[in-house]
C-alpha cells in the first residue's frame, strides 16, 4: 500500500484528483470506478476545474459506480445516480450513456446485481477504482460481515451506516435500508485502487484497515492484499496509524 499524508482535506482532494487525472490523460478510454459520500466531492471539484481549464477530456471515459440505494430512482436527489450527475457528470464531457450505477429501481435484486456485473465485464473491467471509507470499515456498501462478498449483491445497511447517512435525508425514516453494491471481489478486481480518507473520526478505522488483521469484520482490510492500492489521507485521518 502506498500512503500519502496530506495536510488537510483540500490537499487530499487535489492529490487524489491528480492521480485520477493522470489515469485519464494516459488512458483516455479507461474505465473509472467511482464513489459517492462526502469525501470524494473535493476530488470531483478539482477534476471539473481542470476539465474547464481544458486539461482533461472525459469523452471516451466509461465509469461504473460502486453502489446505489435500493428503491431510489436516479431522479431522487438522495440517489447515488443523482449525486454523480450533480457532483461530476453534468459538469464534464463524459457521455451519460457510458456512466453506470446499479439500477436501484430494479426490484429483482438477483437480476440487478447480475446485470451490473455484466456491465463491468463488458466495459473490460475497472482500471482505477476510487473508494471512500465508512466508519465501520465498509467500502461501497460492503458492511462488516462473516465473509467477503465476491460480486455485486444486495445488502441490508447496518445501523451505523444508516445513522451516518441520515444527515443527507430529511428524516431517518427516509434512509433506504438496502442497497446494491459491488462486491469485495468486484472491487479487488480493479487494476488500481485509490482510497480517500479525511478527518479524525476515521483515524481509528483507518489504522485497523492499514495495520489490523485482514478480516471481513473490517471489509477495507482486504485492500492490504491488493497489489496496487494508494491511500490519500489527511493528517487527522492518519493520526492513529
Ligand atoms: C457511504 C458510501 C461509501 C462511502 C461512505 C463514506 O456509505 N456507500 O461508498 O465511502 O459512505 O462516506 P463519507 O465519505 O461521507 O464519510
UniProtKB/TrEMBL annotation:
Catalytic activity: alpha-D-glucosamine 6-phosphate + H2O = beta-D-fructose 6-phosphate + NH4(+)
Top-level lineage group: Bacteria
Domain Glucosamine/galactosamine-6-phosphate isomerase: 17-224
Family annotation (PROSITE patterns): GLC_GALNAC_ISOMERASE
Active site, per annotation: 67 (proton acceptor), 136 (for ring-opening step), 138 (proton acceptor), 143 (for ring-opening step)
HAMAP family recorded: GlcN6P_deamin (MF_01241)
Pfam family name, one: Glucosamine_iso
Family annotation (InterPro entries): Glc/Gal-6P_isomerase (IPR006148), Glucosamine6P_isomerase (IPR004547), Glucosamine6P_isomerase_CS (IPR018321), NagB/RpiA_transferase-like (IPR037171)
Organism lineage string: Bacteria, Bacillati, Bacillota, Clostridia, Lachnospirales
E.C. designation(s): 3.5.99.6
Record flagged with keyword Chaperone: no
GO molecular function, one term: glucosamine-6-phosphate deaminase activity
Pathway(s) this gene product operates in, as recorded in its UniProt entry: Amino-sugar metabolism; N-acetylneuraminate degradation; D-fructose 6-phosphate from N-acetylneuraminate: step 5/5
EC category: hydrolase
Protein name: Glucosamine-6-phosphate deaminase
Keyword Repressor appears in the UniProt entry: no
Keywords tagged on the record: Carbohydrate metabolism, Hydrolase
Functional description taken from the UniProt entry: Catalyzes the reversible isomerization-deamination of glucosamine 6-phosphate (GlcN6P) to form fructose 6-phosphate (Fru6P) and ammonium ion.
Family named by the database record: Belongs to the glucosamine/galactosamine-6-phosphate isomerase family. NagB subfamily.
